[in-house]
Structures are given as structure tokens and as C-alpha cells.
Amino acid sequence: MNNNTQRAIIFALVALLLAATRLHLPASLTHFGPIPDASWAAFFIGGFYLRSWSRWAFPALMALAVLVDYIVIRGQGMNFWAHYCTSPAYWFLVPAYFALWYGGMLTRKHYSRQHDGRSLGVLVASLVGSVAVCQLLSQGSFYWISDVVSQPTVAGWFKNYTDWLLPQPSVGSSGYLMVTAIYVGLALLAHVGVQQIAQLMAAHKARA
């Protein structure tokens, strides 16, 4: 397969992952469904594999995310624009998700096929940093701009920020960072596995 064919397959898989898991979100669109929402991981993974297609791949996945939200909200018999999740803060998801996309791009820039400690360090730092920024933009805008919180405070915002970013076993929340890291970790395992298979096949052909 050529690079464009590979990218097209990856784009389709990332889009499928985003749509399939995002559709399981409940009414509020803020809690994890039966299958944890992989949207954040999808944008990070997309930035890694589709960096050269960013001009159209990111907008396409962003449009898909909005479409899925529309389907979920309309499926509940509600007006999309009247739903509290689609306040003016909703559009902060664009820069929030791009932070994840950029984190994936940054990881790709420093990627090494040897999977050395430096590459792993860049991956961890990029993932944690981009998730933190995404949470800052998405949760922060919702907390301060929407009408859901009647009397916002810095202390209230910070607690809400960390409650959703980090695991909270007491309330049954896995946290966006852990869920995103799990999906990205699974993608990394698949990446290494496919790479090893490709190397074995190439070695077999060379000996044939």
C-alpha cells in the first residue's frame, strides 16, 4: 500500500472509533457511556498519523464529532441549539480538540522507529500536556461561559477541572486523562504489532 492508502485506512478507523464510542454518551454528553468515549484519543491519534492531511482531516473529524452530537441530542427529541451542551462554550471544542491533534503531531515529529526512551517520553509529555490543555479549554469555557453554573468561582472551576481530568473512584469517574491514555496505549500496541509483522514479512521475503 502507498502512504495515501495507509492514511485513508487510518482516517477511516479513527473516524469509526470516534463515532462508535461518542454515540454511547448519555444525555448530558459529559459522562462516559458503556464504552468510554474515545473522541479525545481519536484526535490525538489522528494528529500522529494524519499530520500531512491536517488541513482537511481535522475539520472532517471535527464535523463528524458535531454530527454525532447532533444525532444524539435529536435522538432524545431535543432541539440541538437549545441543548445546554451547545452553549457558546461548545465551539471551544474546536481549539480544544486541535490541542490534542497538535499533541499527536508533536509526537510524530519526534517519533523514532526504535521506540527508544526519548520517543516514549515525548509521547507521554505530549499526551498529558495536550489532554490538560483540551480539558482547560473545553471544561473551562463551559464552566465560565455557559449558564449552567450560576455563580462560578475559581475554586469551583479548579475542583471541576481536576474532578473530570483525573480518576475519581469515589464517584466512579475514570477521568479524561486515563481514558485517553488507555486508548492511545492500545493504539501504540497495535502500531508496534503491525510494525513487527511488517518487518517479519520483509525478512521472510528477503530470505525467499
TrEMBL record:
TM spans (from-to): 32-50, 57-77, 89-107, 119-138, 175-194
Keyword Transmembrane among record annotations: yes
Keywords: Membrane, Transmembrane, Transmembrane helix
Top-level taxon of the source organism: Bacteria
UniProt protein name: Membrane protein
